[in-house]
Amino acid sequence: MKSDIKFFYNQEFWYISAFLNSKEVNEKNIAKEIEILLKERLKNLKEDEFPYLDNFPDAQEKKRKLVDMVNNVFLECSWVPCFKGFSYIAEKKDFTHDNKPLILDSLGYFKFNIEYYKNDITNQNEKETIEPILIQQIPIKARDIIKEFCGKIENEYLLMDCESYIYDFVTSNKVKPTEIPWTTENIKKYKQILGYWIEIYSGSWEDYSEELFDKRIENNLSNRVSELHYLRRNSGFIYMVEDNYRKHFDFYMIENVLEPTAKVRAMQYALMSINESLDILFMKRYSMFMSLERLEEKIDQLRFLKGTIQTNLSLIYNEMDWNRRQHHTKVLTHLLNEFKLEEIVERLEKKFDLLHDSLEKLYSTKREQQDKVRERLLTFLSFLFGLGIIADITTLTMNAFALELGHPLTFFLNIIMLGIIISGFIVYLLYYRANSEKLKELLEKGYAVDAVIEDGKGNVVLIRRKYPPFQGMYALPGGFIEKNETPRQALLREVKEEINLHVKIKKRIGKYDKEGRDPRGNIVSTAFKCSIIGDLPELKSGDDASAADLVPIKKIIDLDLAFDHKDILKDAGILI
Question: What's the total number of domains in the chain?
Answer without folding.
Answer: 3
